[in-house]
Amino acid sequence: MSDTALPRPFVRFAWGVLAYNLLVIGWGAYVRASGSGAGCGDHWPLCNGEIVPRAPALATLIELFHRVTSGLALMLVVASYVWVRRLAAPGAAVRRAAFWSLVFMLIEAAIGAGLVLFEYVAQDQRLARVLWLSAHLANTLILIAWIALTAWFAGGQPAPKLVRGPRLLLVATTLLGLIAIGMTGAIAALGDTLFPAASLAEGMAQDFAPTAHLLLRLRILHPTLAVAVGAACALLAFWSTARALTPTTRALGRAAAALVFVQWAVGTLNLLLLAPIWLQLVHLLMADALWLAFVLLGTAWLAEARAAAPVRVPAPGAVPLSVGR
After folding, report:
1. What is d(CA 153, CA 225) in angstroms, rounded to the nearest whole number?
2. What are the residue ranges spanned by the domains of the chain?
3. Dihedral angle at the C-alpha atoms of 257, 295, 111, 46, nearest 10 degrees?
4. DSSP tally for the chain: helices H, then strands E
5. Which candidate among 54, 76, 108, 148 keeps its CA 20 to 30 Å from the CA of 216?
6. CA–CA dist 207, 227 (Å, integer)
7. Residue 219, SS3?
């Protein structure tokens, strides 16, 4: 049974907020890949100490545009939260999703500011940058998951009931695995940016050299996890599709499975072509699409378990327990 859908204008707005944030994420990756992260120096929220820099360099324009679009993304999430509070009843799943979207958007802004203020940008190779970048990627995935769920629940889709069991364990493990792939992908992308190679053989030699930088030593983790976790994700998608009770869940399962194979192909091409910037962006946006497909698949699959759960009828003469006033 579906929850009450919100008015169509808000549903379209919520999906639009998600699409816009995906564009912002893509541009943020371009900032990193183009080495423009230091375009505004170590100033935040100002750019090189000014609101609007005069005669800015190209790197400054790239970074400034990212800040402006990120600020608009924050305002859109705030607007979504305020609008939802006017439309949905307290306790509704869509209100919770909008609230957590706002929370993780604020965390996203804080991490972004930290990357600039601590100068973990451009050609910086410190270990702390790896940790901050990994946290940034994980937070970004969780953020877009909540934004997507806001739109999903606004459309009247049922919310899952998180009851312990094999289904919840499979979904949770899959999502954690996808976050791990994303984090190692961010590390691999940073390594490609800081230590470019002229050929695939040279890149592999860099990774296994005795004096290799930590970023290069960690780069192998991404393809390894991508194959292992991707295979598990595909199996989950096929299994959930076979056991699905609704056309929506079956469609999500087929889409998620297809995206696993497409992403493997894109990742392989990215490796063979030595990660050109345009292909890095495609790879990232495909990864986001894969993540969102499994977030929505897991949500729909768990909601089916809730809908299929037997209703407990009190025994004759039983006294119902009070659960509060």
Report:
1. 31
2. 1-157, 160-306
3. 90
4. 10, 0
5. 108
6. 19
7. coil
